[in-house]
Structure formats: structure tokens, C-alpha cells
Amino acid sequence: MTRRASRAVHAVLALVVLAALCTQVVLLLGGGADANSGAAEAVPVVTRFVRFLSYFTVQSNLLVLVGAVSLVLDPVRDGRLWRVVRLDALLGIAVTGLVFGAVLAPYVHPTGAAWWVNAGFHYVSPVLAVLSWVLFGPRPRVDGRTFGWAFVWPVAWTVCTLVRGAVVGWYPYPFLDVDELGYAVVLRNVGFVVLLSVALLSLFRLLDRRLRPLPRR
């Protein structure tokens, strides 16, 4: 029963993320708004998609989609690389939900189909992803090596974002805009996100140890 419920919940999560991704792709192809910024930018379509894939939100949701689909196929999925991907999905989507709700939401006002994409990316996916992990695991999966490797992707994303921004003059989020804020403020903002990430990873590792193992083989 637990495995059936896990498959059902992760299937719903996968469908939510997939629907949001497909809708956003259609919007970008038609010159519509990007739900991450709430605006339709007058740039070439290739640039639109490169920017879209540059958002931490989008990469986090892609990781969630990979994890959800894999757990629909096998609710007791395991493996060294899979553990890191799964933990990064949890970290990324939790940071996405918290940072968007606390910092970015007042600046993003999508309408129409983009409103639904925004809801899927920033509200439904974070809540459902974390809740499904609490309810169905699989766990234990977060050992010391997994904890350490989980930092590679967010650190790489941050470095690449700042380097690319310095070259092309575009940053995915206003709190990372060096041209507008300067490096001192941006590095302070990055420091806050790093502390949040460490706290979340530590919490996930603690819960992974304390909550009962799931699913049972």
C-alpha cells in the first residue's frame, strides 16, 4: 500500500512539473511571458530558452521531475548518483519555494497561463516534493558523502551565474544583479542563501536519520 501511494503521489508531482514546463515552453515559443520574471522579453528565441534554463527554479524543478519519475518506476530507488540527485532536488526546490515566497514574489506578477506556470514551479512543486519525501522517502539515503556532494550543483550554479552575468550583463534574479547592486551586496545575498542551504541540508539529513525507514522492502 505504501509503495502504491508513493507511486501515485510522485506521479502527480511529475505531472505538475511536466505540465508547467510544457506550458512555459509553448509560451516562450510564442513570445509570451517567462513565469520566472513575469515578463515577455524582446530577445531571440534561443536567448529566451537559455535564460529560462539558467533559472535555479527551473533546474530545481527538472531535478524534481527526474526524481519523481524514477520513484514512480521504483519507490525504493537507490544508488550513489541517485542519492545526490534526489537530495539536490529536495534542496533546490525547498530553496526555490522559500526564496521566491520571501523575496521574489512581490516583483513577479504573471498573468494568464504564466500564472499557472508560476504556481506550479514556485508553490505546488516545492510543497508536494518535500511532503512526498517526508511521507514516502525513500530513506535512509543521506549519508556523509551524499551530503558533501550535494553542494557541488548549487555552488557550480552560483559561480556560473555570476561569471556569465559579468560577460552578458544578464542575471536571473535581482538579488544577484552585480551591475545594479555591486559585488559586496550580491556576495552578502549569496552568503544568506548558502546559510539557508546548509541549514536545509542539515535538516534533511537529520530527518533522514530520525524518521522511520521507508518504504519497507
Q: Average pLDDT across residues?
A: 92
The main sheet comes to: none
Number of helices: 9
Poorly predicted ranges = none
What structural class should be given to the helix and strand makeup?
mainly alpha
- The radius of gyration over CA amounts to 18 Å
Distance from N terminus to C terminus (CA atoms, Å) equals 12 Å
Strand content: under 5%
- Helix fraction, binned, reads over 70%
How many domains comprise the coordinates?
Answer: 1
SSE pattern, N- to C-terminal: HHHHHHHHH
Task: Name the shape in a single word.
Answer: globular
Question: Total strand count, please?
Answer: 0
Protein name: Pr6Pr family membrane protein
InterPro entries: Pr6Pr-like
Transmembrane segments: 52-73, 85-107, 113-136, 148-173, 185-207
Keywords: Membrane, Transmembrane, Transmembrane helix
Question: Could you please describe the fold and organization of this structure?
Answer:
This is Pr6Pr family membrane protein. Keywords: Membrane, Transmembrane, Transmembrane helix. InterPro entries: Pr6Pr-like (IPR049713). The structure is a single chain. The chain is mainly alpha-helical and 217 residues long. The protein has one domain. The chain has 9 helices and no strands. Helix 3 packs across helix 4 and helix 4 packs across helix 9. The mean pLDDT is 92.
Secondary structure: elements and pairs:
Blueprint (H helix, E strand, L loop, with lengths): L1 H28 L15 H10 L1 H18 L6 H25 L8 H24 L7 H6 L2 H17 L9 H4 L1 H28 L7
Helix pairs in contact: 1-3, 1-5, 3-4, 3-5, 4-5, 4-9
